[in-house]
Design brief:
The protein is of the alpha/beta class. The chain has helices at about 40-65, 70-80, 85-95, 100-120, 125-140, 165-170, 190-200, 235-255, 285-290, 300-305, 310-325, 360-365, 370-380, 400-415, 435-440, 440-445, 455-465, 480-495, 510-520, 530-540, 545-555, 560-575, and strands spanning about 1-5, 5-10, 15-20, 160, 180-185, 205, 220-225, 230, 270-275, 295-300, 330-335, 390, 430, 450-455, 500-505, 525. An eight-stranded mixed beta sheet has the order 1-8-7-3-4-5-6-2. Strands 15-14-13-12-11-10-9-16 form an eight-stranded parallel beta sheet. The protein binds phosphoenolpyruvate and magnesium ion (MG). Its cofactor is Mg(2+).
Length: about 575
């Protein structure tokens, strides 16, 4: 049994056989050859090596011609690596003596080479490791062992173990078979984490290097509550996790009884409790769990989960479905938040050194109107079917908000002129995710119809911590006093100007933090569907006075850790059922 510690990003427990994706994400099962297949397999390998060599040589010539010999030498070096006698001998030995398939041998040998280079702790050689993995990928492709798409063809339940999973790969995981996942990289606020929560897949990220120690099919426990991953658990550990799984299921069943009860404190202070969704089909769960509406629809996942760029009609169909299925409840559509860790179909920006500070979100939409306009048209068209609002993400300056709103007006005019059914008088809001917007909030509130605080980005930009970087995960805390003070200012300004305000960042999905926000005066939270009933349970277990006392005490504290310890204590006192043991 091996126990690993990572960052818990999506709660719950999953138990199942491992499916290990190598660093490039390919699934190469260990398969053995019959004795009479060995010769043909070795010939297949030789053929693949020849084809890759030809490809590398032509890359070298073409690149040298375009970018100079120095650049072309990258491929000369790869050619040299591919023909390294020790590497070739090791491949031959595995096929001839151990009867491994060529694909499996290639994946293991090149992987070990890359790892050895990485361990030398020399940045230049670490780059070479990427070259080795590139050769691996090409050989595997020539051997027919991988196609371009990852994670296809699952036919049994698995736990995915990978170096990295992108948000779009996570969005496309086959929920019928994938029970949970853990990755070597990734941070607490990344979109991979958010999608995992949306899919209700227990997940642990940022574990550091461990894949070398794991084989396919060994039993794995993913503990998404505490950030633990247990490989090959002993019978005692397995039994205790099975017990926890059972306890979780019975808590979920108990919480489902709250579905139709209002989210209000013991003494009757109401909270509007909406849900965050990434996909239209999630509305079913939202209704099942009694959501008051959709407080954040992350529409960029329409891009990330389809092979082709969505058309205006695709947008329209998705939004109409959501608003119809919500049966009159309000739906807030957030416009595209692409860029940084969420990339679309075509390169929308040049290479950026700091993509989280670069051309992302509303900035990207405003510079790609052929992408933005169809979405705005679809939102106004879908608004005839129900209660739709629109909000713009990552607004930093007043000019950005004005430009986006103006574009919405222009689009409404176009629709009117062409006689297309639509509704133009929908509320237009902004997300508050950048400290600059908080500082200017008194001006913004004069122009916006509502505010929604995105604490995931607000924490990232306030604390100067990349939300998806495992190395600084300990610094990424939405309960940091600096973030709390910014939220308090938003609440104050919104109240003064009678401007509706909600919080849709992940912070509000944590029951203890939800109580704090309630105590700070927030009356509308939007949380992942998986958290709706837990947050409702917490709210229904306290008085508003208790929440306010919590807020008063917390605002005197100096560190996120103190805040969280205090909040956990209070939660244990008021709602012990929700404490995970
Ligand atoms: C946020 O930043 O808090 C937010 C809700 O938006 P996203 O997580 O999609 O960036
Ligand atoms: Mg955000």
């Amino acid at each position: 049994m091996v126990e690993l510690q990572g960052i818990p990003v999506s709660p719950g427990v999953a138990i199942g056989p491992a499916l290990v994706l190598d660093a490039a994400g390919y699934r190469i099962p260990r398969s053995l050859l019959a004795a009479d297949e060995v010769e043909a397999e070795f010939a297949r390998l030789r053929d693949a090596v020849d084809r890759v060599s030809t490809r590398l040589e032509s890359n070298r010539l073409e690149t040298s011609a375009v970018a100079g010999e120095h650049t072309g030498d990258i491929f000369a070096a790869q050619l040299q690596m591919l023909h390294d006698p020790r590497l070739q001998a090791e491949l031959r030995r595995r096929i001839e003596q151990e009867h491994q398939s060529a694909a499996y041998a290639v994946s293991r040998v090149l992987h070990n080479y890359a790892e050895a280079l990485r361990k030398l702790d020399n940045p230049l050689l670490a780059d070479r490791a990427e070259d080795v993995l590139d050769i691996e990928k090409q050989l595997l492709f020539c051997l027919g062992a991988v196609s371009e798409s990852r994670l296809v063809d699952l036919d049994e339940t698995v736990i995915i173990l990978s170096h990295v999973l992108t948000p779009s790969e996570t969005a496309n995981l086959d929920r019928r078979y994938v029970r949970g996942f853990c990755t070597e990289t990734g941070g607490p606020g990344g979109h991979t984490a958010i999608v995992a929560k949306g899919l209700e897949l227990p997940a642990v990220v940022g574990i550091g290097n461990f894949l070398d120690r794991v084989g396919n099919r060994i039993k794995v426990i993913v503990d998404g509550d505490r950030g633990r991953v247990i490989l090959d658990p002993d019978p005692e550990t397995l039994a205790s996790y099975k017990k926890r799984l059972k306890a979780r299921r019975s808590l979920t069943a108990k919480l489902s009884e709250l579905r139709d009860l209002p989210a209000e404190t013991i003494d009757g202070t109401p909270l509007r409790l909406s849900a965050n969704i990434e996909f239209p089909h999630e509305t079913t769960t939202c209704i099942e769990r009694g959501a008051d509406g959709i407080g954040l629809y992350r529409t960029e996942f329409l891009y990330l989960s389809s092979r082709e760029e969505p058309s205006e009609e695709d947008h329209y169909q998705a939004y109409s479905q959501v608003v119809r299925e919500m049966e009159g409840r309000p739906v807030v559509i957030r416009t595209l938040d692409l860029g940084a860790d969420k990339m679309g179909h075509r390169p929308l920006a040049e290479y950026e050194h700091n993509p989280f500070l670069g051309l992302r979100s509303i900035r990207l939409s405003l510079r790609n109107l052929d992408l933005f306009r169809p979405q705005l048209r679809a939102i106004l068209r879908a608004a005839v079917h129900g209660d739709i609002s629109v909000m713009f993400p990552l607004i930093t300056t007043l000019a950005e908000f004005r430009q986006a709103r103006m574009l919405l007006n222009v689009v409404a005019e176009d629709l009117k002129e062409s006689g297309t059914p639509h509704r133009s008088n929908i509320p237009v809001g902004m997300m508050v995710e950048v400290p600059a917007a908080v500082m200017m909030l008194d001006r913004f509130v004069e122009e916006v119809d509502f505010l929604s605080i995105g604490t995931n980005d607000l924490a990232q930009y306030t604390l100067a911590v990349d939300r998806s970087n495992e190395y600084v995960a300990d610094l990424y805390q939405s309960s940091d006093p600096a973030v709390l003070r910014l939220i308090a200012r938003c609440v104050e300004v919104a109240k003064e100007h009678d401007c509706p305000l909600s919080i849709c960042g992940e912070m509000s999905s944590n029951p203890a933090r939800a109580l704090l926000l309630m105590g700070m005066g927030v009356r509308h939270l939007s949380v992942p569907p998986s958290s709706l009933l837990r947050v409702k349970k917490a709210i229904r277990s306290v008085s508003i006075g208790q929440c306010e006392q919590m807020a008063e005490r917390v605002m005197q504290l100096e560190a996120a850790r103190d805040v969280d310890l205090y909040l956990l204590d209070r939660l244990g006192e008021y709602v012990p059922e929700l404490i995970v043991t």
